[in-house]
Sequence to fold (382 residues):
Amino acid sequence: MTRIYLVRHAEAEGNLYRRIHGWYDSLITDNGYRQIAALAHRFEGIPVDAVYSSDLFRTRTTAGAICKPKGLALTTRKGLREIHLGDWEDRTWGEVARLDPAELDRFNRNAPEFRAEGGESFRELRRRTTASVRQLVRNHPGQTVAVVSHGTAIRNLLAAFQNIPEADSARLPHSDNTAVSLLEFDGDAVRVVFHDDASHLPEEISTFARQRWWKQDSGSRADSNLWFRPLDMEREGEIYRRCRREAWLNIHGSPAHYDEEGFYQDALAQWRYDRRAVTCAMLGDELAGLLQLDLQRHAEKGIGYIPFVYMMPSHRKQGLGVQLLGQAVSVYRPLGRQYLRLRCAPDNLVAQRFYKRYGFYRVGSAEGTRVPLDLLEKSIGY
Fold:
């Protein structure tokens, strides 16, 4: 009998930023590394003979929790990857819900006819992943093997090995990051001993403890997922001015030293250079925030500079702001930028806590209008 532990990867950028990452190679979040430590503790007393993962960063890094303490080599298999989502890759769930709701519904239902343009179907995913696991079982008769893969891939593997038809796979639960399932293979027979167990995660580091979408029968994520559109600085400039003004007053309490025209002209120049420089964060049809990027500043240093991050007052303290950071990563990483950088007043304690929570650290100071500002950076390179 061969025992296979199926493990979902730790929390990665797609989970945090609410972006679609199938074959997109995303990084592990700070919270994900805490989950990896908890997973390592769980496997301390479990004998394992071999460790495999998909070839993507998030599974390879997670697999280290099992193979490194045991002195085992990690072997990667492309066949263990997540479902390939084609043109959807690195889009936000909010954008796809708006532009392709019928196909998103088919995805949420695990419908056999689902296929994102340029991607693969659930049937192809099931065929690919089951073949990969079956091969590992043949290669390791009588042994215990840990396999680190992805949420939708594991969900469909569990359905396949329980002879659940593709169309009914959606009735299986979703799994938290680093959740563990155990399968026993004896010839052609497969027994699921347990599945989707994340009991090693304290609530404070559980991804699911902070999210709601997985509890909804429809699988809808529309209540919490933003989408982004360019702000036309020439026709919609008043929106930018209004947001800048409110942000200044909220932080400083007074319009003293506020240079509205200077802020606007800087943003206009950046927008004229690249339309991605100023974008609206939208929740449905409602403006939820603004993100401003300066795609020229510090480009030679591999830095993606962020002059302005703003959430509308009605959308603050709802966990949405991190999605604006995800949009910045989505723009800057393909340009080869290795870091995000921004400035933050040292006495703006709310913003300081927010940025530090999501991986920013102080690297220096810069002159500000009122007080010296902290320079904060976050690594986005592999």
About this structure: The two ends are 38 Å apart (CA to CA). DSSP finds eleven helices and 13 strands in the chain. The first strand starts at residue 2 and ends at 8.
